[in-house]
Amino acid sequence: MPDPAETTKATVRAKYGAIAESQSSCCGPSASTCLDVSERYDALDGYAADADLGLGCGVPTELADFQPGERVIDLGSGAGLDAFVARRAVGADGYVLGVDMTPAMVETARANAEQLGYANVDFRLGEIEAMPVDDGAFDIALSNCVLNLVPDKTQAFREIFRVLRPGGRFVISDIVSTGPLPEALREAAELYVGCIAGALPKDHYLSIMRDIGFERITVDRARAVELPDEMLREHLSDSVLAEFRASGAGVLSLTVTGTVPSA
To answer: What is the pTM of this model?
Structure first.
């Protein structure tokens, strides 16, 4: 029997590989099964248009409080959008590493970095649940609308804890649910790569961070994400859709910060 986690990863890898190769967003208006949760980046210092595929659900770099010379890891770095903004902030004495499990995205990000002339921005192929980096190597971990795509979120947060130095911090934008989602939504692969089906309940999501040992966990930003009936009807019967609406459950885009305890 196929491993569900590996099946999910293959689905995500295929979808995002296609996006990288076409340089298009998952969330265009013609894709009714794909939710538009992207945020604007074009006003940020360090913005690189070629790296903006419209795949984020927040702007974690705005809350990172980068300092010159810091080391940053970007989890699920895609074409390099957040990594390049971070690079502008930490400067030539800093270092930024992007980790992504999709080969086409890594290739695209490397090409973008070369075009920008950044010698201290690297991109590495790898999975967030088993990152190919040393313990305590980074000051800041960033992630933008990616952890909801990871099958084992607890292991992902363990890895984030591992690669940050004592006193290091994370800034993560992600999608969470505010109540039970219908099973049909969770089984829809297109909604998984569109960030919805893999969303954990908000309280559970935050409890994972606390249980692993992060401190000063704060939800800095949160906004409701609209789930249009047109999209939901592709996966739900009218009766299930009505029950879902009556339940008050929904989906949030949030940005969370936290720290590793100091030594």
So the answer is: 0.86
